[in-house]
Amino acid sequence: MLRGAFICAAILVCVNVAVGLEVTFATPDGGVVHADLYGESGRHGIVLAHGGLADKGDWAPQAEQLAAAGYLVLAIDFRGYGDSRGGGMSRSLYLGGRYFDVLGGIQYLLSQEVQIVSVIGSRMGAAVVAYATTKVDDPAAIGSVILLAPPPLLNPEDVPGKKLVLVSLPDRLEESIRRQFAEFPSPKKLVVIDPPNPDPAVQSRETQVLEEILSCLASADPSATP
Fold first, then answer.
1. 120: which of 37, 43, 89, 166 is 20 to 30 A away, CA to CA?
2. What pTM value is reported for the model?
3. Which residue range is the domain that position 27 belongs to?
4. What is the mean pLDDT of residues 108-135?
């Protein structure tokens, strides 16, 4: 548990955090998702998907930073968390049907006139967003797929967009993670986050993670296209 939480904790940067605007939207299977929206507008939207022991509120520091960088950011509560609920078939579907929540979030952002949507998922949320992107109607609408400490994924070979995987690798897991990463189509990048270092001259892991995420998002940003 602590190993898996390492990379997720790395982006909890201390900032003055604004409260997101609470919104709701329907999912393709008839559920209702509650989410926090950060930013007023933007051509590039981001769906943030939490891990199994978290909720949408845990994304607040990162969401505020991403919104300040010009992105329209949607932090969702999965069905069964907060006030979100799924359709009647949830329990019989892969990951409890939570990928419908991500699909609903993608559609919500597209309805706000963004041109492209990226997804960022932590642990369980990483598996959900990766699978959800394989089910979108238009894969060209997906910019970046950013996975923080992902568990084993279903159909990684079908994930569209630019892939960024951020992990802290115990030796015994390195081979399996790299094998799964090899199944992603290009473009893709695997980043192993360094352990904490007390030397202030060494780049902090929080800064390293944030820079990697912003770089990946910028490379898929429609505003960067001539």
1. 89
2. 0.89
3. 2-221
4. 96
Q: Is residue 139 part of a domain?
A: yes
pLDDT number for residue 170: 65
CATH at residue 112: 3.40.50.1820
- Does the residue 155 lie in any domain? yes
Token pair, residue 22, equals: 């609470």
Domain count, the chain: 1
**CB-CB neighbours of 111 under 10 Å:** 10
Distance from C-alpha of 185 to C-alpha of 134, rounded to nearest angstrom: 12
Q: Does 226 fall in a domain?
A: no
